[in-house]
Design goal:
Elements (H helix, E strand, L loop, with lengths): L3 H10 L14 E3 L6 H9 L4 E4 L17 E6 L2 H11 L5 E4 L13 E7 L6 H7 E12 L5 H8 L10 H10 L2 E15 L2 H10 L13 H14 L2 E14 L2
Parallel strand pairs: 2-3, 2-5, 3-4, 5-6
Antiparallel strand pairs: 1-7, 6-8, 7-8
């Protein structure tokens, strides 16, 4: 059995490029939302002639669509992900453009019939509304308020839940940008970590869970986490996810 130091070193060495979580297989599990985001965007992509994926990561989810529309574009802000996304989406004819998460989106007004985004760090609703064609829709799966708060609190002590990611705020901001919210769903999903290496890699990859996380800075809490998992078999948290769809009226 690997020691604490070996597990921490392993989790700290995993590459962070892309948005592929396959490394966690056998080491952590996360329940998936019932709505099936990849399937939804796959269905929608076959009914439109232009589509934009905002903050595509490595393009892994967008690459699952069965048919690419005539115009397919994606944005990404992190340089290592941009190279991965371009390779991933090249077979679909997708164009990947570097753009900051906070906007603006580097496209003319009314460019896309469908805009999608999975787990965006921030949603700039006025920009989403601007690039949508009249009658077009934005479909997004997002991180909800208090996601994985059990993990955050274990590492940092009890923390207040930031309402910035609440469904109420998302709906209000979409409507303020002139969009009509046509679907809004929320689910709390089981997340389980089976070794401290998985915790380390997760905290390095999902930066907002423990802002400023480093192995050295949180070594004492990682020791406590390792002891907890050794005693109980896993560490249990709950991710918060919501699906929102908003339409620009014709």
């Amino acid at each position: 059995m690997a020691t604490f130091d070996e597990l921490v070193a392993e989790g700290d060495a995993v590459a962070l490029d892309g948005w592929d979580f396959s490394w966690f297989e056998g080491r952590a599990t996360e329940e998936r939302p019932s709505w099936g985001y990849a399937g939804l965007i796959g269905q929608r992509s076959s009914t439109v002639d232009s589509m934009l994926d905002v903050q595509t990561g490595g393009g892994e989810v967008l690459a699952t669509i069965p048919r690419a529309p005539a115009v397919l574009a994606a944005t990404e802000s992190w340089p290592p992900n941009i190279d991965v996304a371009r390779r991933t989406l090249e077979p679909l004819g997708g164009k990947v453009v570097e753009a900051p998460d906070e906007g603006p989106l580097p496209f003319p007004d009314a460019s896309f019939e469908l805009v999608v985004s999975r787990l965006p760090t921030v949603t700039v609703w006025p920009e989403i509304a601007r690039v949508l064609r009249p009658g077009g829709s934005y479909l997004s799966q997002q991180v909800g308020a208090g996601s994985n708060r059990e993990l955050t609190d274990f590492m940092m002590g009890p923390q207040p839940v930031n309402p910035i990611r609440s469904t109420e705020r998302a709906e209000a901001e979409a409507e303020a940008a002139g969009l009509v919210v046509t679907d809004l769903r929320h689910e709390s999903l089981r997340v389980e970590f089976f070794d401290v290496a998985a915790v380390v890699h997760f905290l390095r990859k999902v930066l907002w869970t423990v802002p400023g996380f480093t192995v050295d800075g949180y070594r004492d809490r990682l020791v406590a986490m390792h002891e907890h998992i050794t005693e109980h078999g896993s560490f249990l948290a709950h991710s918060q996810r919501f699906l929102i769809e908003a339409r620009r009226e014709a």
